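Researcher: Go.
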Amino acid sequence: MDKLIIEVALNETVARADNPHVPLSPEELERDAADCMAAGASIVHFHPRDPDCPPGQLDAGRVDDEPFYRDVMIRMKRHGDVLPYPSYPYQTQVGHGDPGMLFSHVKALHADPEVQLETFVFFVGASNLGWWNSDEQRLVTDRANFTLHSEAISFLEWCKQAGFRTQFGVREPGHIRHIYHYQDMGLVPDPVAVHLNFSDGPPFGPIPGAKGIQSFLDAVPEGKRPFEWFIHNFSNNFNSSASTPESHRMLNLLAIAMGGHVRTGIGDLPRWDGEPLSNAQMVERFARIAREMGREIATAEEARDILGLQKPEPAG
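Model: Structure:
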């Protein structure tokens, strides 16, 4: 079985009140990434955050802050070979306007000679991300999330022209079909890399578990090369119950066993059985389990080989 890539989501929208170890400032993100690299992570994802935001409040409005990303990514690369990548404005905020302006910070970070962004993850298709409250037995929010085909195609045309390899987030098996149709258009080279997004709260996509994973894998059209895949699970750690238990760890263990790759971190699981672990501790736990199951951990260079990335030439 191929080596296991471990991606770590350092912060997402988790507040200090939820986990005091969540890194927010550039200095904290730099140190945390270095610790995670030492523990086995080769891909690092993070959001620009405001350390002065009051505890318990979220500050998710800076997700396309190119100068913040630039500063932090340069800092991270000082500690060794790593693949950092940014977030982006949530798709409820796009879909109206010039598709060519989509992900402008990604384009700038790729062109920056000191950053040379190598990869990125964006979600295709459409989903309703409204939350289900199992205790109250009702849907408590209502929020559509989407990327238009015109937007995805415009971005993929830029990727092809710039020699940039993006990855895809999917929430429904049908989204896999979108990606392979983009490939039929000559816009997506092999190997395709996909993040399988499962949910413990909003009732989109397959039920988290082996059958749900397999439903995505079975959506590959006949004659196409199977995709590389990561678990991408946002846990309902704050309101889990017997009817909706946290599935982050179960899904990542299945990924290890089924040939996928792991994504973990405070950003996706703020507390591990109520314990506020650090990001490096979470990476260490999955790395240990993978080795016990017979899968060695991929370095950043090995992750590039698996995902079809090419390391950029040194700046200067």
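Model: The domain at 6-307 is CATH 3.20.20.70 (TIM Barrel).
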